[in-house]
Amino acid sequence: MRIDESAYDRRRLRQWLSGEARAEGVSRRDLLRLAAAAGVLTTLGWPTPAVADAPAPGPGIVKPLPPELFTIRGTNAETNWSALRDTGFHTPVDRFFVRNHTSTPQLDAADWRLKVWGSGLRGAPGLDRAVTFDLHDLRLLPAVTLDAFVECAGNGRSYFTSQQGDTVTGTAWTLGAVGTARWRGVRLSHVLRRAGLTGRAVDLQPRGLDDEYVTGGINLGRVRRPLPVAKALDDVILAYEMNGESLPYDHGHPVRVIVPSWVGISNIKWVGDIEVSDQPLYSPWNTDFYRLFGPAYPAEGSAPLTRQTLKSAFESASGATFEAGVRHRLTGRSWSGAGGIRRVDVSTDAGATWRRAELHDRPRTGSWSRWSLDWRPTQTGPTALLARATDTTGRTQPDTTIPNTQGYLFDAVVRNPVNVLAPARVWALPVVTVAAQPGGHV
Ligand SMILES: Nc1nc2c(c(=O)[nH]1)N[C@H]1C(S)=C(S)[C@@H](COP(=O)(O)O)O[C@H]1N2
Ligand SMILES: [Mo]
Fold it and tell me: Residue with the nearest Cα to atom 23 of ligand 1?
């Protein structure tokens, strides 16, 4: 089923502006104040530079974050793309990015409960009609397995600044805020039916059990984001396994929501309750966050973001060196929120000429495709590697992305600076042995 997402979004935006909808716990005035503080609604039309919140004492992430696998960014950990070479289709948990608004709660699966409640369920009016599930209840329902990427809507944000000179706010991700895993769990539609879903339900809102999120001096409450019923019934799952293991603490243990192809924020971790409503729902995460603001967009912002965009990444570090005269195998991956990957073109000369890469995965919606291309550089010196993907809907990555103040959905071709060195004359170099000094650094 293909739902009409843009019609849904337009309707929601109208309701929001006319004050018909509610952003549970947060007044519209607060949201506008916050948006203004973040510089997204200035009448000048362009934001003032971000004022960073107080730096976190360290990421509240449970798993080890060795520097060869991750780059730490505040409360988040970005995957280094060079660490994905030879890892296979699924991103191993030890190098899957983590994006936390606060910190990872270490929940005990035995105590965990999911409360499904709200006016969209059967039951007496006025009551919250709550139905509670524990992990055992979920495991008794038919299990489904699916491959899906989770990608932050801000993935690639730093390129707005480094490639286009745009001022944007938010975590300065390069391309490592994405990972693909094999998720196992139960269909959300199944749980909703068990809970007594009615035809009146229009929106759902899963909410996390992690701490309340305070930003700009305003407590926005627990992380939560509405989801239209049509998407919830289509392909959303409540996952309790990731790559064949029980869900790790950092990725939502014991249960998280997986919303294939949609912006990362949809995939609520540590889900504790789901409101099912017969009225449209709002939260800061679909009103002032996760909409596009900026000169190219209406003052109230675009419709709330749904699908991710189209991107490509090389499995190598920025600034990597390559030896001239030697054949190198360049590898990478491309993905799209709109469909599978049909074609990838690669340039090894900063965009002057392009060659078609070999694809190693069949195009699949919600998943990435690995690709490779051999390169035997002849000229020494700096150059740039570029990859440009085309998805099965026919969309191709552009040269630039129309900027938005919060730096979401960067889809332009990324220029990866590299250096080609003269063939190494290893035989001509003396072998130098440096003796370790006691207590000294070598
Ligand atoms: N409860 C909760 N769910 C959450 C978040 C969060 O901070 N708290 N972050 C969201 C965002 S912005 C992203 S991009 C993804 C990241 O998922 P990961 O940390 O498993 O990679 O989780 C989403 N779900
Ligand atoms: Mo995100």
Answer: 265
**CB-defined site of ligand 1, < 6 Å:** 96-101, 150, 152, 208, 210, 223, 251, 264-265, 267-270
CA of 154 to the centre of ligand 2 (A): 6
| CA 73 to ligand 1 centroid distance, Å | 14
Determine, yes or no, domain membership for 301: no
User: CA 409 to CA 390: how far, in whole Å?
Assistant: 16
404's tokens: 């938005």
**Phi, psi (5° rounding) for residue 269?**
-90, 160
pLDDT score of 12: 52
Residue where one domain finishes, among candidates 234, 254, 287: 287
Q: How far is the CA of 327 from the centre of ligand 1 (A)?
A: 40
pTM of the model: 0.87
**Domain of 280, in residue numbers:** 5-287
Give the CATH number, domain containing residue 84: 3.90.420.10
What confidence tens digit (pLDDT) does each residue in 177-224 have? 999 999 999 999 999 999 999 999 999 999 999 999 999 899 999 999
Residues 217 and 320 in one domain: no
103-144 pLDDT, tens digit each: 999 999 999 999 999 999 998 777 788 999 999 999 999 999
Pick from 318, 386, 397: which is nearest to 348 by CA?
386
> Considering only CA atoms, which of 249, 223, 252 is closest in space to residue 237?
252
Q: What angle do CA 406, 78, 94 make, to 5 degrees?
A: 150
**Closest ligand 1 atom, residue 153 Cα:** 14
Ligand 1 nearest-atom number relative to CA 257: 24
Residues 202 and 125 in one domain: yes
Distance CA 318, CA 54 (A): 29
Residue 400 pLDDT greater than 60, yes or no: yes
Residue 432 lies in a domain: no
Give the domain CATH number at 323. 2.60.40.650
Total count of domains within the chain: 2
Same domain membership, residue 316 and residue 178: no
Do 205 and 137 reside in the same domain of the chain?
Answer: yes
How many Å lie between the centroid of ligand 2 and the Cα of residue 41? 21
